[in-house]
Design brief:
Helix content: 25-40%
GO molecular function, one term: metal ion binding
CATH superfamily of the largest domain: Medium-chain alcohol dehydrogenases, catalytic domain
Largest sheet: 7 strands, mixed
Number of helices: 10
Cofactor: Zn(2+)
Shape: globular
CATH architecture of the largest domain: Alpha-Beta Complex
Radius of gyration: 21 Å
GO biological process, one term: protein tetramerization
InterPro entries: ADH-like_N (IPR013154), Glu_dehyd_C (IPR031640), GroES-like_sf (IPR011032), NAD(P)-bd_dom_sf (IPR036291), Zn_alcohol_dh (IPR050129)
Number of strands: 19
Distance between the termini: 12 Å
Bound molecules: zinc ion
Keywords: Membrane, Metal-binding, Oxidoreductase, Transmembrane, Transmembrane helix, Zinc
Order of helices and strands: EEEHEEEEHEEEEHEHEHEEHEHEHHEHE
Structural class: alpha/beta
CATH topology of the largest domain: Quinone Oxidoreductase, Chain A, domain 1
């Protein structure tokens, strides 16, 4: 069967032939239907991620962590049946207390593995076997390919939960009890930025989203369908509007600091993007402003099984409330044979590319 793998430590990805997996008792055999391509995959293929790690005893790693799969074979007595659609979880627990309660997204010692990223083969292959504990059932089968967005969206569901928790330290609701008087500004208009825009719009907040360019107006149009306002910010000369929440998805340190500087009192910055380069000095005045205005800076990664489950219900709801938007985020569907060059270099105009396996 086909698989897309990398040699850890060397740039490039190849489509290779590997043996079909043998299901052991208690495991589920799965047919991969779709896998999404994200920045982490490109970081792995470009040999830019220091945490990339093959499974023990191997030098190569099958990549892919955003997937939709179909159950092919399963033991009786498990809730899944042949034909069920599932989204596999990425991160698998180590031995710390957070991991032991299913919150490996909050792992406290780094002793976890991640499918397709570190220490465990991923889902860019025709078939794989898995422990049913790490499979999230897709109840709404009408989602089809859109369910491949569950994995990126679960990060945003968790980030929103963390924001919700810290926002309760002061009154941040409006006079009507809602959050409709609050403004959130999102840096980066890729799939993560757009999903954050839907998340905050769905709770009634005023959403602004920006990126460095939008040559054909696609991002502006997509934002307006979400009920968000898009603007181009080519460089730092354009100010970031005053906001109650700032979300950084690009990983740029100067964008992160500019966004923090634009926060109103009791504001919250959610840092989600990461990038290995760049720097931005933090001045004494920055520290004073963060202290005096009760600013909270949140770093957040991954999500738990409950966030995958809720991501699926958001996708079902947004499919109807933002008609056509989720579908228009998937800008290319390619067979595995055409995936390696797309994994090496992001095509122009891409929002999300997806590999179709069946
Ligand atoms: Zn842990």
């Amino acid at each position: 069967m086909r698989a897309i793998s990398i040699k850890v430590g060397t740039p490039g990805a190849s489509l290779v032939e590997v043996p079909e997996p043998q299901r052991r008792k208690g495991e589920v055999l799965l047919r991969t239907l779709y896998t999404g391509i994200c920045g982490t995959d490109r970081g792995l293929v470009g040999n830019q991620l220091s945490f990339a790690r093959p499974p023990p005893g191997s030098t190569s790693l099958i990549i892919g962590h955003e997937a939709l799969a179909r159950v092919e074979d399963v033991d009786p007595g498990i809730k899944l049946r042949k034909g069920s659609l599932v989204v596999p979880m990425v991160r698998r627990p180590g031995k710390c207390l957070n991991c032991l309660i299913g919150r490996q997204d909050n792992c406290s010692d780094g002793d976890f593995v991640e499918a397709g990223i570190r220490g465990l083969d991923g889902f860019m292959r025709d078939y794989f076997t898995d422990d049913p504990t790490y499979l999230v059932r897709v109840e709404d089968e009408s989602l089809g390919m859109l369910a491949v967005l569950t994995e990126p969206l679960k990060n945003i569901v968790k980030a929103y939960d963390v924001y919700d928790l810290v926002s309760r330290r002061a009154i941040t609701n409006c006079r009507d009890g809602s959050r409709s008087c609050l403004t959130v500004t999102i840096a980066g208009a890729g799939p993560i930025g757009m999903l954050f825009a839907m998340m905050f719009n769905s709770v009634g907040m005023d959403v602004k989203i920006f990126s460095r360019h939008d040559p054909d107006g696609t991002l502006s149009e997509m934002a307006s369908k979400i009920g968000a306002e898009y603007f181009v910010r080519e460089d730092r000369s354009k100010p970031i509007p005053p906001s109650d929440v700032f979300v950084e998805t690009s990983g740029s340190p100067n964008v992160a600091m500019d966004g923090i500087r634009a926060l109103r009192p009791n504001g919250v910055a959610i840092l989600f993007g990461t990038a290995p380069s760049g720097s931005e000095p933090v001045s004494g005045q920055d520290v004073i402003d963060i202290v005096e205005r009760n600013i909270t800076v949140i770093g957040t990664v991954d999500g738990a099984k409950e966030h995958y489950i809720r991501a699926l219900s958001y996708l079902s709801s947004w499919k109807d409330s933002y008609p056509g938007v989720l579908k228009s985020m998937i800008t290319a569907i390619v067979p595995p044979e055409e995936a390696p060059p797309i994994l090496a270099e992001k095509p122009r105009g891409e929002i999300k590319s997806v590999i179709k396996w069946e």
